[in-house]
Design goal:
This protein is α+β, with helices and mostly antiparallel strands and 177 residues long. Helix content is 31%, strand content 28%. A hairpin with a 2-residue loop joins strand 6 and strand 7.
């Protein structure tokens, strides 16, 4: 991939692009959001950006059941288009240890099947290494072939399947050493 891509934390200069990303997911995916720090709950994008900042530290978490995390957007530098979003959880609580994992992500519906998921996950794994993590758990719905391929292409090793709310997820571990 020759495009210049980068992980960028949500900020005010991207409000219109975040709004467009959010609307596209609502229109195309029936509002099924993954790895976007509850963006679906926020019509006020500035408020969502503020919540993302609060989530970066365990001292400022807006919900005691959440863990500290960094939200990133995969941005194509040529046109500042948001191609996807990825959430890096600094640690795992009971729920995340069983189901959600360290990383959740979503590629913009109109940008799928172009390699952006793999690029975004690879960049996020670099962030994990910088945080000193040795390995990360990541999961996907059993019927999400694109996400499975993305995880495998970044070194994911299948651990097991789990039944969650009537559906099946697959759990993978990625070694960062």
């Amino acid at each position: 991939m020759s495009e210049k891509l980068s992980l960028v934390k949500p900020r005010e200069e991207f409000i219109e692009e975040i709004r467009a990303f959010r609307q596209e997911v609502i229109d195309v995916d029936d509002g099924l959001f993954h790895g976007v720090s509850a963006l679906d709950d926020f019509e006020d994008i500035s408020a969502w950006i503020r919540q993302c900042r609060l989530m970066e530290s365990s001292e400022t978490l807006p919900n005691p059941d959440w863990v500290d995390a960094d939200e990133f957007m995969l941005v194509r530098e040529a046109d500042s288009r948001i191609l996807g979003m990825i959430n890096l959880r600094h640690r795992l609580n009971e729920y995340l240890a069983e189901i959600g994992g360290h990383i959740g992500y979503m590629v913009r519906p109109s940008e799928r099947r172009k390699g952006y998921g793999k690029a975004m996950l690879a960049l996020c794994l670099d962030e994990c290494r910088e945080r000193g993590l040795d390995r990360v758990m990541i999961s996907c719905d059993a019927d999400n072939e694109g996400s499975r391929r993305t995880i495998l292409s970044c070194g994911g090793v299948f651990e097991r399947s789990a039944v969650v709310d009537g559906g099946v997820i697959e759990r993978y571990w990625i070694s960062l050493r």
